[in-house]
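INFO batch 0412 | record 1 of 1 | parsing
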Amino acid sequence: MSNTSVTVVIPFYNGNCYLDETLDSIETQSSLVDEVVFVIDNNSEVPRFNRKYSFQIKKIANPEPYNGAGICRYYGFQEASSRFVAFLDPDDLWKEDKVKKHRDFMLKNELAFSFGGYDNFVDDGGERNIVNTIVPEGPYDLDRFLSKSFTIGCLTVLVDKWKVSSVEKNYLKRRNDYMMWFHLLKYAGENSLKWGGFKESLAMHRIHSESLTDSKVKAAFAYWGYLKKLPVTGVNRVRFFMCYVINTVRERLL
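INFO prediction complete | emitting tokens
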């Protein structure tokens, strides 16, 4: 693994609609991306794109009978041959030089894991209209993460495989990314590894019409289900959930 290279892991299930835009945004990353690994879920169409790219593209099948982005990210991380591993969904975007700025921040601060800000946007007649911008504000610790005092956006994450050689598999259908971050932060704490947030919005998360109408009650139940899987006390579980509700409402109002 070189000192500068990046592998992008994309969990894939019938995600061709915006895939060209996503790959084009990866292509703008100053040739720092060595490879893109698609992990294709069961019964999915295969990834299709309309041009050649400077990075290598690998396609692997989810070897498990269970579908889910959490499983796919696990196998994509294992497959990655670069020092740094990033994650994208096939409809999200990176701004120009996202990888360079973020990787340089990681190297300067000797971080094992980090994340940054991102814009939520909707497509409106071919125009990208930004709904809001989420920037993770410190201090950064596991307690504040579980309280959702800051948000770790999957499309912003960068992991140093020189420091974190593997990630844990999880089978959650919703909040599987949060479970991955919990395991990473717990691992970092146990091994005295540094991690933190990058206070610049360098990515764009696409919000679909179904996302806008998705029940906030369902989202809250999903977070509660995630908290129930964690090794925390009942009192702390309730405390984290109440903080999640308050901070989610506050985030949506910003």
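INFO post-check: The mean pLDDT is 92.
INFO record closed
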